[in-house]
Design goal:
The protein has 1 helix and 11 strands. A hairpin with a 3-residue loop joins β9 and β10.
């Protein structure tokens, strides 16, 4: 069909407008898709954290029902991460003695699926070393030098811990923990004081 010349310009304008509407609609659809993907990611992260908290609470309830002593300290929730920088001041006195600042062992320090291990020094070595643990509804500190080792938990220790998006830091004060000599099986009491931090 042929249109009169005076109709050609309005028809062209209408065509351009329709094309623009289609492009705007496509852009809106793409933006909506991006927002939906971001929302799904945030929802997944929230569900993971909620699941970790639920698991910790279930373990706590099971321990209570089993008649196990429960710590007064709140067990922090730490998101999955690795640790690249950190330091510790470690002091042990009594059955054996340590006064050292072992370096962060980055290869042995990680938080994954609700469990945290932050190690300073090398476990099993002669030099002083320590490992901070968080998980299974408890927090702990294991210290060692040579053949001597001692481990404290929230039952024996007063613990403060601060967790941010990039750093975990805290203090352990354990006035009386049993130390062991792994060479001859002898035992004795030690006092442990630890300050630490580890950054992702």
């Amino acid at each position: 069909m042929r249109y009169p010349p005076f109709l050609l310009i309005p028809l062209a304008v209408i065509g351009i407008a329709l094309t623009s509407c289609g492009s705007a609609s496509d852009s809106s659809d793409n933006a909506a898709h991006d927002l939906t993907a971001d929302d799904e990611t945030l929802q997944d992260e929230a569900l993971h954290q909620e699941s970790t908290q639920d698991e910790a609470e279930l373990m706590r309830q099971a321990a209570i029902e089993a008649g196990l002593p429960m710590p007064d300290e709140e067990i922090p929730v730490i998101s999955d991460r690795t640790y690249t920088v950190g330091h510790m001041q470690l002091r042990v006195s009594g059955f054996f003695d340590i006064n050292a600042s072992p370096a962060l062992n980055t290869q042995a320090s990680i938080t994954s699926d609700g469990y945290t291990w932050i190690q300073y020094g090398a476990s099993g070595e002669e030099l002083p070393n320590a490992t901070v643990t968080v998980g299974e509804g408890d927090m702990g500190i294991s210290v060692a030098v040579g053949r001597y080792v001692a481990t404290g938990t929230t039952i024996e220790c007063e613990i403060t811990m601060e967790v941010t998006a990039t750093k975990v830091s805290g203090h352990y004060s354990c006035p009386k923990v049993t130390g062991y000599n792994q060479a001859d099986g002898s035992m004795g009491d030690v006092e442990i004081e630890v300050d630490f931090e580890a950054t992702s």
